[in-house]
Structures are given as structure tokens and as C-alpha cells.
Amino acid sequence: MSIPPSDADWLAAAARLGLRGRPVSRPNPSVGAIIVKDGIVIAHGHTQAGGRPHAEAMALAQAGEAAIGATLYCSLEPCAHRSDRGPACSQLIGSSGITRVVYGLADPDSRTNGEGQSILRDAGIKAELTDCAACKTSLSGYLMRKTKGRPHVTIKLAMSLDGFLARPDGESQWITGANARAHVHSRRAMADAILVGGGTWRADKPRLDVRLPGLESRSPQRILLSRGIAPDGVKVINHPAQISALDGVQYLYVEGGAQTAASFLKKGLADRIEIYRAPIFLGSGITALGDYGLTSLAEAHEYWQLTERRMLGTDTYEAYDRSEASFNSGN
Predict the structure, then answer these.
(1) What is the Cα–Cα distance from 79 to 113, expressed in whole angstroms?
(2) Is 257 annotated as a binding residue?
(3) What tens digit of pLDDT does each residue of 279-330 get?
């Protein structure tokens, strides 16, 4: 006999659903919502382009009267503030016939934090916060903006087995295969902005766009870390700390080069590392990462945790997220 999905399972599914709206839901977070009745999904939704309708509103509209007596799972606490663009989700839910709401994160927005739950409970709905790691991951950019005042930063590195990103003469096309390169474009499509250093810009003249069929419109804003003049259509910042001033950017994808990646690590501004490793040896060349100021091995441990690994053709993809302990220690 199969085991029915738990609350944690449904929340993880809502978190994955929310990823569909990233990053076009900006300035709002991309939330996922699933309505379940008698163990069956009767409706679902995610935040739409431009931030409206919200995920809960989408799911409720789809469910109609079938929502009566059902449970709503959502990745973020339903909003409590009304705006000119639509009613508060907590009030919509309160009049929908939903009897139970389970959400994976309290909203750090002061207009909602705890108030969404209060409105639901006042309407007679059983509202429960169930801590969900998948929800935190799916909303990492929104949470980083609200708590740290900056985007969530992912650093991408493509390298040989011996840690080089290019031959000594600078030749780097292509270290990895077609599958890995397509995966990189899918990651670009989930970012608000993509950043490279001046050396990479001058040497490679990268397009920094999304070239997957149907996703070309998801090409992120282009950012250059340099002290030079901004090329057409590209924004220049002079220092990694200036990412806090990138308006509307919740997810920043740092794609090159070695010194640029090191500068973000040195300032404690890297939240995720994505490594594409090709099954080749170069023997010598340009290293994938520059010196970022590590002074002892003790500093290097317990900072990163492996969260994903997969094969992309013959290449290996690994993702490492920054540990909670490193944030708590102030590093």
C-alpha cells in the first residue's frame, strides 16, 4: 500500500511549482500554491509575470467551489496587505471555503509577517507554519533581499578535472559539452541579472543571453564588474558590494572570470557555487578560481554543503549552497 504524501511533500511540490515564475514575477517573490482535497490536487498556481495574480489567487480561481473543505499548501505565508493591484490573499482564502492552510515560510515583509496567519485564523481556518527547506531554496532571492538587502548570488565555474578554465593561451571554448552549456542557459533564464568581470568581457565578448528555444525572452540584465565605461545595454558596477543597489535584482548569476568569482567569495557575497566539471586534463592554464584571501584550512571547512549533483552528458554538475552556520558566524 502506498504512503500518502505528507505536508512536507506537498510543500516541496509547491516550492517547485513556484520556480516556474522566477524571475518574471519580480518585484514580487515567485510563490507556488497547491489545493488538495481528499488526497487529490484540484488546483494549483504560481505567481504570474509582473507579480500578479498571486499564486493563491490563481489556485483559488481554478478551484472555484471545489475549494470548500480543502487544504491549501503554499510556499510563503499568504499576504495580508491589500494593494491597488489586487486583494490580500489571506482575505481571499478566508472567504473561499478552504478549511486548512499550510505554508513553508513566514513572510519577512513587515506588512504580512504573522498578520497573514492571524487573518486566516480569525476566519476560522486552521493555519500552520511548517518549516520547509525547499521553500527557502525556491525563495532564496526574495529572502536575501528582505534580510540582507542584496541579491542571492550564484557563482558558476566551468573547469577541467585539474581545475583549469582555459589553456595557458586563453583558449576555453569549449571546456564542457553541449548538454552542460544548455544547462547553463537554463540557469541564466532563472536569474534577474548576469555578471562578468572586465577581463572576461574583453577576452570573450560574451553575449550573456539565453539561447534556449522559447526562453529567449528570459535573458537577464547584463552587469559588468569594471572601472571602465559601460558598453551599450550593459550596467557597470565597480565593486561587488554595489550589487545591493541593483534595482529589482533578487537573483544574480556570476559567470566569469576567476578573479571576479574570487572577489565575491572574499567579500562573503557568494551564496551558491555551481561547478561544471569536464572529464579532461589540461595540465596547466588559467585556474578556475583566483586567490580569495583564505588564510587557514580551518576557515575553509563547514562553509559549503553539496545540495545537488548530476551528469550532463559526460560532464558533472555539482551545486553547493552556503551553510547556515557561515551566515550565523558573520562570515
Answers:
(1) 8
(2) yes
(3) 998 888 878 777 676 666 766 677 889 999 999 999 999 999 998 766 555 5
Residue 140 in grid coordinates: 532564496
pLDDT tens-place string over residues 167-179? 777 666 788 999 9
61 is known to lie in a ligand binding site = no
Question: Are 37 and 66 spatial neighbours (Cβ–Cβ below 8 Å)?
Answer: yes
Annotated catalytic residue within 56, 77, 115, 274: 56
Catalytic site includes residue 274: no
- What amino acid occupies position 114? G
Q: What is the pLDDT of residue 138?
A: 95
Domains in the chain, ordered, with CATH? Answer: 7-142 (3.40.140.10), 150-326 (3.40.430.10)
Question: Which has more pLDDT, 170 or 39?
Answer: 39
127 is in an annotated binding site: no
Q: Which candidate, 135, 115, 128, places its Cα nearest to that of 33? A: 135
With vertex at residue 196, the alpha carbon angle to CA 195 and CA 201, rounded to the nearest 5 degrees, is 135
pTM value is 0.90
Residue 263 among known ligand-binding residues:
yes
Q: What is the mean pLDDT of the chain?
A: 89
Q: Is 142 helix (H, G, I), strand (E, B) or coil?
A: helix
**What does the DSSP assignment read for 179-207?**
HHHHHHHHHHTT-SEEEEEHHHHHHH---
The strand pairing partners of 47, in sequence order, are none
Q: Is 48 annotated as a binding residue?
A: no
Higher-pLDDT residue of 266, 85: 266
- Kindly report whether the peptide bond that precedes residue 168 is cis, defined as omega within 30 degrees of 0: no
One-letter amino acid identity for 229? I
pLDDT at residue 116 is higher than 70:
yes
